[in-house]
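Our consortium's second objective concerns turning raw sequence data into structural hypotheses that experimental partners can test. To show how far this objective has progressed, the report includes one record in full. It was chosen at random from the queue rather than selected for favorable results. The single chain below, 93 residues long, was entered without modification.
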Amino acid sequence: MATSKPFVSPSFTYETLEETLDIKPKGAQLFIGIPKETSFSENRVALTPEAVGVMVANGHRVVMETKAGHGASYTDNDYSAFQHSGIRSLEFT
């Protein structure tokens, strides 16, 4: 057995890198519904505004309940911000 410990440089750091995948539309359209959470102290939302933008840009239809993202500090305007580009696949109920 080795009696010495491995040397780790103090300047060595671990850094997490974010990776974005390029999603290509496959022709099939999904119909995605995002409800507002009604449980006590539940602040999560199923998709962020950026994720909804990616879904709609790839040809999917997204329907959200009004104020679904308020618990997670996202407004309805955050979700509809990308609609000025002519994309009309996001609806609020």
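The partners drew two points from this record. Residues 49-57 form the longest helix (9 residues). The helical segments are 49-57, 76-80. Both points have been shared with the crystallography group to help prioritize constructs.
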